[in-house]
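Q: What structure does this chain adopt?
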Amino acid sequence: MHLPYPPRKASNPAPYLPRSSPLPGLRRTRLKLIALVALAFITLIYLVSRPSNKHADSVQWKPSGKPPVVLVTVLDEKKYGKGYLQTIVENRIQYAEKHGYEAFFAKVGDYDLKGAPASWTAVVAVRHALTKFPDCHYVWYLEQNAFVMNPELKIEDHVMQPSRLEELMKKDFPVVPPDSIIRTFSHVKGQEIDLVITQDKAGLSVGSFIVRNSDWARFFLETWFDPLYRSYNFQKAETHALEHIVQWHPTILAKMAIVDQNIINSYSKGAKGAQYKNGDLVVRFSDCSTAGKAQECETESQPFATKWRKAFANS
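A:
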């Protein structure tokens, strides 16, 4: 029996390579280690010696509360009469001055909405107010077709105190009525809330809402105003966009509280939501803002204008 021939050696054998010494590799390892230590040391010196930026450092920075609240309203000068808008401006300024707040007014057309409906101006105006008043505690957006009716109620005490929020917030509650499978969290505490809003019979109502000044608030507003959601062409624009992101993003839902309408968003008529009653903070004319009904807003508001002026004069 013959064994097979061994394989033939290559005709061009590899050149002889001398055995490498471990010392060069060891030197390289030590040099790398020294470089990493030096880099870490330089980074530490930079972090310790650099000037502090209180607004960039969300861990250290806390707003001073000057002013405590910024009351934001967007005015549509093309759609509504000058006298009606002046009454709204007067109402906001008187309420803000009484409590040391700031009243911030934006106009439809002030911002480039990239073709989105004008109602999106509200979101940009709130973001603008946070930029202009970086030390405020809260921003309260209240649409133009509304009056502050009770001058005695302060946002800090009436709504935003953590203990007060614990009483007001609806837990394990459908986000979109009547039976949304997405519900507000049951374990969230008052001090964890950064967005306060209400519902009417149709869903979330964005005519009156409050955001706490925080990094989360900026994230929330940027998310809400994302071009993707503006491009969806929702029937109710920013309202349906908000309902969408709240139901799909737990990061936002976890910071949101739904409270009764009568706390910050009573309606002049009860067909679509909770009707205004004496002592409520706000009355909104929710039906008059549809196309072709601008004049009705002024007519409907007149009795309430007389009433809020009397309340403010006596406060």
